[in-house]
Structure formats: C-alpha cells, structure tokens
Amino acid sequence: MKPINVGLLGIGTVGGGTFNVLKRNEEEITRRAGRPIRITTVADKNLELARSVTGGAVKLTDDAFAVVADPEIDIVVELIGGYGVARELVLKAIENGKHVVTANKALLAVHGNEIFAAAQKKGVMVAFEAAVAGGIPIIKALREGLTANRIQWLAGIINGTTNFILSEMRDKGLPFAEVLKQAQALGYAEADPTFDIEGVDAAHKATIMSAIAFGIPMQFDKAHVEGITSLESADITYAEQLGYRIKLLGIARRRDNGVELRVHPTLIPAKRLIANVEGAMNAVLVQGDAVGATLYYGKGAGAEPTASAVIADLVDVTRLHTADPEHRVPHLAFQPDQVRDVAVLPIDEVVTSYYLRLRVEDKPGVLADITRILADSDISIDAMIQKEPAEGETQTDIIMLTHQTVEKNANAAIARIEALPVVCGKVTRLRLENLQ
Question: CA distances (Å), 177 to each of 163, 229, 232, in order?
Fold first, then answer.
C-alpha cells in the first residue's frame, strides 16, 4: 500500500526523537498502521542540525511554508511551538487539505477553537496527544477510553519542571530560587522558565483537558493561574507535618453553575498516589461517574516520550486517512454541534479547602479572635498547629486547615484577620484538595 508522506516542521528535541523512533520502529509501526509512515521532508532553520539528525536521507528545507504547500505531503507534523508562525502554518496546512499532528499546547489552548473549526470545515484531522503530559496517552483516554463517563473532575501534575522543583524543596529543605538554579543546570528548566514556574504551561494543558472532559470550547483566557515562585519552604514543611504534600495542580471540575478551571500550588493528602509523583514525572487523576478514579502516570517531556505520542497520532491519522470525516473521533470528544459554551467560574466562586499560615503576637485571646472571624464567614477548622515561640521571640506561627468553603468567603475572612493588630503581615493562603 502507498506510504503516508509526512512533512516534519522543526527537528529539535521532539522532532529528532520523532524521526529516530519512527525509523527504529518502522516495521512495528507499519504493522499497526496498515501502511508505511515516512517522513519525506523536514523543515528547520538550522539545516546543519537537520542534516545531522536525518543523515541527509530526506528532503531538507528552511522554508516551512513550502512543506505545507507540497502536494506530496499527506500529514504535517508541527513541532515549532509558540503562537505566531505555528498558527499560520497549521491553518495553511489545513487549508491545503492536509492532516496535522502537533505537540503545541500553547497554540491549541489559545487558538484551538479556530483551528478545529477550520479542520472540521475542510474534513481533515488535527491530532494533539503530545500536547499534554508528553508520553502519557491522556488525550486518548479522555476522548475515547472514558467516553461512557460523565467526567466529574480531573487534577493533574502536568509540568515536570515545577514538580521537580517542589520535590527538591521538600526533600532538601532548599528555597525556591536555589532549586530553580539547580533545575536549570540539569536541563529541567529553560533559561527563561516563566511559562513553567508561573503556571502558564500547566494552564495551557488544563485548558485542553477541560475542553475534552466537559465538551466545552478552549477557554484559556478564563483560567485562574498561579505559579510557585512565592512558595516558601516553611509551608512545604508544615504541610508535611499535617500529612500533606504541595504540588502544582491543573484542576478542572464540573459544578452545577459552571466549570472550575484553575492552576495553583495545592495541598494533597500524602496518602494519595498522585501526591507521591516526584521529580520531573507527570500524572493525571480523572474522576468519572461510572469508572470512578483513574490515574495516568509517566514522563511528561523528553525527546522519545513525546515522540511516542506524536507517532501514536500519526498512526491514528493514517488508519483514518480515507475514512468518512463524519465518522472520525471528534477533536474535543463531543460532536462539534454539541460543544457547549459553559461558563468558566471566576476564582471567587470556586469551592475548596484552605491552608492558612499566620504570624501572630504570642498573647492570650489571639486564637479566639481568629476562630471567631472564620466562624462569622461560615468557615470551620479541620486541623491546626500552634507553634511555641522560639526562645526570646514574641511572635509565633499558627497553621490552620479549613473545611470546604467558597473562595470569596475565605478572602473576606483573611482580610479581617490581617486587620487584627495581633496579626503580623499577610496571611499565607494555599488551596487544599482531598481528591476523593
């Protein structure tokens, strides 16, 4: 049978991994796909790099637009990244009737609605397993494996850089800035790590998963995003004493009045499997009404783990290449006319539990004042640590865990607590999820 011809845009880490894995496992992949899948053209600005990876065995060009216009190319694999030229190339490939495979979570989270609509109109597929959690097949699980379920919520450790940093902070008691430098030296963090440490990368991925889980459009601009830059080692230690671990979680939850979509540092009970995901690994926990909780774990980045997902998409597209577009799996799991524009709730309306750390004067009645304010806001305390002041100190820490409440109630209570003359500085507030 005639081979499927692939044009590869970008042969950096993931592109090189894709080329090598496809070549190494060519026979196995052909047996699964039913026909050979061959990268015939590679576009990259660095032609010397492209030549060293491919050995000159394929056509090389520095003009990616020539690849998406080439009538001999059946599938375009976009591994350039970013929002700009990648969007132009993907839309041009679709316009030219080519299927697209991409690992570009930022592109899909921001421009996915436009891209999927264009693909639907043209009758081509856009596959993006590699865009979320590297080699973990979470997109396929959400879109196909769990299709019988009404997904209730999902929570994911979906950024390896931040998970590595938090693991090191907990294990070694080091401050954030020091561990970040270590992560950069080891290659886990970029020279500019902003997207990772500020939670933006995780929010891109959570946006994509929420759309598939709930049948809603991509709504990245509505996500609440917090990173880990202000997290202190003391809070990681206190959380541990209370039986919790702190992870940067991407959370999407179905509510009666809308959908929660948020990324932030989160306390998780240490006994949960996901709380024990360490280093640069990823994990996603999904709660369905029929299946219950399912956990997906593995490498969330790297050349060959991500290439694994890219090639799985290539095989899927190859199998369905000649299928009636109406009978393919929809991009967002739900039929396009059944995607519903459900409201993403503002963070003030989110319901969760809280970790509060207060620095207070060591005086009688302080705790009574604080608990009275919490009670006035209908916030009940689940657990508490009151530290003895160090010798010669007149201030101490109080750490509280609350039961669930609406965020706006927590904010109002915190503002009143901070106004007390016996409270020193700002209250440290972290959200807590039991993930039951």
Answer: 14, 8, 10
Q: Is 16 annotated as a binding residue?
A: yes
The verdict on whether residue 14 carries a ligand-binding annotation is yes
**d(C-alpha 218, C-alpha 212), whole Å:** 9
Residues 152 and 224 in one domain: yes
Please tell me which residue in 59, 172, 181, 205 is annotated as part of the active site. Answer: 205
Segment 173-194, tens digit of pLDDT: 999 999 999 999 988 888 899 9
Residue with tokens 């509280």, as numbered in its chain: 400
Pairing of strands 224-225, 258-269: parallel
> Range of 110's domain?
4-135+303-338
Tens digits of residue pLDDT in 278-297: 999 999 999 999 999 999 99
What is the average per-residue pLDDT within 349-369?
94
Same domain, 254 and 321: no
Q: What's the CA dihedral at 57, 61, 66, 72 to 10 degrees?
A: -10
Strand duo 99-102 + 151-157: pairing: unpaired
Could you give the number of structural domains in the chain? 3
Is 97 marked as binding a ligand?
Answer: no
- Whether residue 184 lies inside any domain: the answer is yes
pTM over 0.90: yes
45: annotated active-site residue: no
C-alpha closest to that of 35 among 64, 12, 15, 6: 6
* Domain-embedded: residue 345: no
